[in-house]
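Fold this sequence, please.
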Amino acid sequence: LGSYETRQQIKTKLRDVIPRWPDIRASAWPTVRGTALGAALGVLPGTGPFIASYSAYALESRIAKDPSRFGKGAVEGVAAPEAANNASAFTHYIPMLSLGVPAGAVFAMLMGALMMHGIHPGPDIMTKHADLFWGLIASMWLGNLMLLVLNLPLIGVWIKLLETPYQYIYPTILLLTCIGCYAVRGQVFDIQLAAVVLLIGFVLEKLDCSPGPLIIAMILGPILEENMRRATLISNGDLTVFVRRPISAAFLLLAVVLIVTYLIPSFRGAGRDKVPGAAAPADPGA
């Protein structure tokens, strides 16, 4: 945001952000559909935090009577993705806590923090660590209540933070990260390792590669290898056990479906670029 636009948004009053009755009525069913879609997608492991929002937006734009309103402030295009995002944010805890499979990089780091404290996510986490589980549920309710109390009255303060110069924010983040790395074991090597990871992340960012899958692989790699070896030992080396068992076969099928879903738009775009007989653009100098 530019400085003028930021100042204009800071002057926004609380009554200006409260939805009117027509907006509430228009966003009621999109909110319900977004919540259902986000909850369904959030249960799937490895779906990440943005798939639910994009899917809800695509669904509303497809079933809308006037899709041209989307992208121009349509309330359905805001309510449905936000409802899907909130629903998936909570249901992402289900595969992480019950199966030990995080939904994204953030949940991978959260699972890594739990494992550092000797808490291994799995089906018995509700019985072995009931205090942690129910405390997490309570924190969700309290967190939403605090967001409602803090965000609306202090919206001007949060927007004011956008004016903080980047040269102040970036060193602060680096300093806090180094303190956190050193505080885990009290060794300088951890800070050096974090610097190497920072360099790798910088290269990945320049190559337009998301570092999220790398973080997930670092957390899930040892767990995957351990359980795969255990399964092959139980099956006497028969790898078909992964497709003969209904649960593992269902997860493998979901993984294939997600990969194909990601690749189809790329293939369609490449196909449109190579349509035979397409007319070349006219030469303005002709």
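The chain has a mean pLDDT of 77. Residues 39 and 87 are 5 Å apart (CA to CA).
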